[in-house]
Write a structure and sequence with these properties.
Strand content: under 5%
Distance between the termini: 39 Å
Number of strands: 0
Helix content: 40-55%
């Protein structure tokens, strides 16, 4: 349990940063490019902060729990990645979109780091 541990996200001024990977676009069609880029940017920032966190491993363990697996960045790992790693059923549009978003973010992160 993380309640007695303090991560870098604990007192961060924008706690929603760790939930930028969740698609909150409820309207018809695809999210606009600007909104998608903002989600990617915010998700990458959360992952970067997690990479320096002293409780990253414990946080990831919590993120793998059934009540947390579908949402947010936990221990530097996006929901879509956790679902794919755990053989979570990918039988809904939401879960498929989460895995696809995670793949795109990691691809972009790799491109950025090579530049």
């Amino acid at each position: 349990m993380l309640s007695n541990l303090v991560g870098l996200c604990t007192d961060y001024h924008d706690p929603d940063l760790w939930f930028s990977d969740t698609d909150d676009n409820k309207g018809p069609g695809r999210p606009r490019t600007k909104e998608l880029l903002l989600r990617v940017e915010r998700t990458l920032k959360a992952i970067e902060i997690c990479s320096h966190c002293p409780i990253r491993e414990q946080c990831l363990e919590q993120g793998m729990l059934s009540e947390n697996i579908e949402n947010g960045v936990w221990g530097g790992v996006m929901a879509g990645e956790r679902m794919a790693f755990s053989n979570y059923p990918l039988n809904t549009a939401t879960t498929i979109m989460a895995v696809d978003f995670a793949r795109k973010v990691r691809s972009l992160k790799n491109l950025i780091s090579k530049a």
